[in-house]
Amino acid sequence: MTSAAWHLHRASLHANDDALGEGANVSAALPASAGVRSNAGASASDAASGPAVAKAAAEPPPYRVKTAVVEHSFSEAAQRLGLDAATTAQLTKAFAGRVDFRRDLQRGSEVSFVFRNAAGSANPQTNAQTNPQADTQTNAPASDARAAASTSTPTQPATSAGAASRTPVAVRISTGTASHDLFLYRNLAGKAFYYSADGHSAAPSFLRYPVKFTRISSHFALRRLDPVTHRIQPHEGVDLAAPVGTPVHATARGTVTWVGWKTGYGKVVMLDNFGPYSTTFAHLSRYAKHLKAGDSVRQGQVIGYVGATGWATGPHLHYEVHVDQVAQDPLTVDLPHRDPLRGADKQRFAQQVERLDALL
Ligand SMILES: [Zn+2]
After folding, report:
1. Ligand 1 centre from 319 Cα, in Å?
2. Is the pLDDT reported for residue 214 higher than 80?
3. What percent of the chain has pLDDT over 90?
4. Are 155 and 231 part of one and the same domain?
5. Which of 108, 194, 198, 209 allows an S-S link to 202, with CB 3.0 to 4.6 Å?
6. Is there a single domain that holds both residue 183 and residue 231?
7. Pair (282, 169) in one structural domain
8. From ligand 1's centre to the CA of 13, what distance in Å?
């Protein structure tokens, strides 16, 4: 994804987070949330105890649950359960911050999906042509009002057949030692995203700082007199002073692209993060044990330790954030981030989780 797309994406995320008072989104969302309220109560008991008693006597049960044993991969199991490739890819991304599919997902792990059944009492607002791509925050921006309206399907209890029945409203991966759940939730601003049961977003995000530092010893600058080379050159990162040996953490999940020595940088680790982002951690005293190129790392994982290797006048971490290969100021660069659910959204979500968790 391009940087521009990510920024748009971020803009839409912010709109979601902050849009409860925003006219356009709210007016689109209100009938939807009313729909959730009126039908959801019935849904819970329907699922547990019997035939639908909502609007039409002939309505099918509101949910169906499908489970598969993983034989080869998550995507293989997901597709066996009827997910299309796009939805499978979204879920793979949504889980990526929590589950390492190569390491954690063994043969014999189980994958369960809860789907909402299409029902007769379609919300007139919903759109059977809903693009599931727009349903999670791991995707391209759904920033315009039309997209927002058209994605109102997945969390509606009653819609026409279509994306609603193909996009799972709850997903559980059971690895034998642990289980990982995600729940689709449409917020009051009218957009649907996957969250963990505690209401934290499944979206990949960035930490601002990779290290506990004592001070910023040098700022990002396009022109700087380098204290070691005594030449004017750009300083493409920020220097965070910290004692030798202070752990350095990955600021976002990613893949290790370099572990080794580079002129000037000394011992350096480079990560290719998601989207257009990559990060560099230089002047390390040492690397995390066994870290090598190709490894995937999680956000917060220790990747090395502060040092003063390379061209450094004292112990500090030189930290760079690149967006589409262009260095940006790590202290101010716009980073993907999504706040946990709060307030009324959090309460509605908790009720939904209770209902769906019982089905998994
Ligand atoms: Zn530096």
Report:
1. 7
2. yes
3. 41
4. no
5. 194
6. no
7. no
8. 32
Residue 215 has pLDDT above 60, yes or no: yes
Burial class (CB in 10 A: 0-12, 13-18, 19+), 311: middle
Q: What is the pLDDT of residue 175?
A: 86
State the virtual CA torsion across 292, 294, 300, 306 in degrees, nearest 10: 30
Task: Look up the CATH number of the domain holding residue 12.
Answer: 3.10.450.350
Q: Is 9 left (phi over 0), alpha (psi -120 to 50) or beta?
A: alpha
**Phi first, then psi: what are they for 225, rounded to 5°?**
-80, 110
Domain co-membership, 92 together with 195:
yes
Centroid of ligand 1 to alpha carbon of 282 (angstroms): 8
- The total domain count for the chain is 2
Give this prediction's pTM. Answer: 0.52
Ion ligand 1: residues, CB within 5 A, are: 239, 318
Distance 264 CA to ligand 1 centre (A): 9
pLDDT confidence bin for 348, thresholds 50/70/90: very high
Give yes or no: residues 195 and 279 share one domain: no
